[in-house]
Design goal:
CATH topology: Rossmann fold
Helix content: 40-55%
Number of helices: 7
CATH architecture: 3-Layer(aba) Sandwich
CATH superfamily: P-loop containing nucleotide triphosphate hydrolases
Number of strands: 5
Length: about 170
């Protein structure tokens, strides 16, 4: 089976999407899209106050992400696209992957415990995502179901080891 053309790299804030994503895209000779770059200013301002986004905030952002992925795939169809996006709920993932033919899109879930991620966030300064939002992220998190055929990548290892494992899984399926 060929490698997917679209990889949705998902998980809560602090799990390593922005570190693993560019490395993964590089290893796959692909393009990296940072979901945070597509948040409208109002979303960033809301999160900066410690207020979680609601669906009214998220759906326009998801539209922007889908458009960016489609544009990237149209502009460079020979290169896979890796999108880093929390995509915490199943319906969000389904929406982001809609329209991609079977076998062309994969989910990679960067999975870790709340304590591990909290310890990472305590050492991180982020433009608008305070560590206080971590509990809301875990409350919203719906881990991928088996039918989503997600690659589950446990984050308790180095970014290089994570990327190696993900690339192996992508090649094996």
């Amino acid at each position: 089976m060929t490698r997917p053309t679209f990889i949705l790299l998902m998980g809560p804030s602090g799990c390593g999407k922005s570190t693993v994503g560019p490395q993964l895209a590089g290893r796959l000779a692909g393009l990296y899209l940072e979901g945070d770059d597509f948040h409208p200013p109002a979303n960033k301002a809301k999160m900066a106050t410690g207020t979680p986004l609601d669906d009214a905030d998220r759906w326009p952002w998801f539209d922007l992400l889908r458009e960016a992925v489609a544009r990237a795939l149209a502009d460079q169809p020979d290169r896979p696209v890796v999108l880093a996006c929390s995509a915490l709920r199943r319906r969000y993932r389904d929406y982001l992957l809609a329209g991609h033919p079977p076998g062309t899109a994969r989910i990679v879930f960067l999975s870790g415990t709340r304590d591990l991620i909290a310890s990472r966030l305590s050492d991180r300064v982020h433009e608008y995502m305070p560590a206080t939002l971590l509990d809301s992220q875990f409350a919203a998190l719906e881990a991928p179901d088996p039918d989503e055929q997600a690659i589950i990548a446990e984050i308790g290892r180095t970014p290089d080891a994570l990327v190696d494992a993900i690339v192996r899984e992508l090649g094996a399926r």
